[in-house]
Amino acid sequence: NGFSLPVQDALQVGRAHAGTVAAASDASTVYHNPAGMTELSGEEMLAGVTVVYAGYDVDDHGSSAVMPGSGGALVPVPGDDGHPRSVAPVPTAFYARPMTVDHDLWLGLALTSPWGLGVEYNDDWFGRYDSIETRLTTVNFSPALAYRIREWISIGAGFNVEYADAKLSSALPNTLAPGGPSAATDGTNRFTGNSIAFGFNVGVLLKPWRHTRIGVHYRSAIQHELSGQVRVRNLTGPLAPGNGRFNADVKLNEPDIVAIGFEHEPLPGTTLFGEAQWFNWSRFNELRVEFSDERPDSVRKQEWQDTWSFYGGIEQRLLEGWTLRAGAGYEPTPTIDRFRNTSLPDGDRVRVGFGVSYDWSSKLRIDFAYAHVFAEREDIDLTQSFFQGAAAGTVTTRARASLFVNDFALRARYRF
Question: Are 334 and 346 within 8 A, CB to CB?
Answer without folding.
Answer: yes
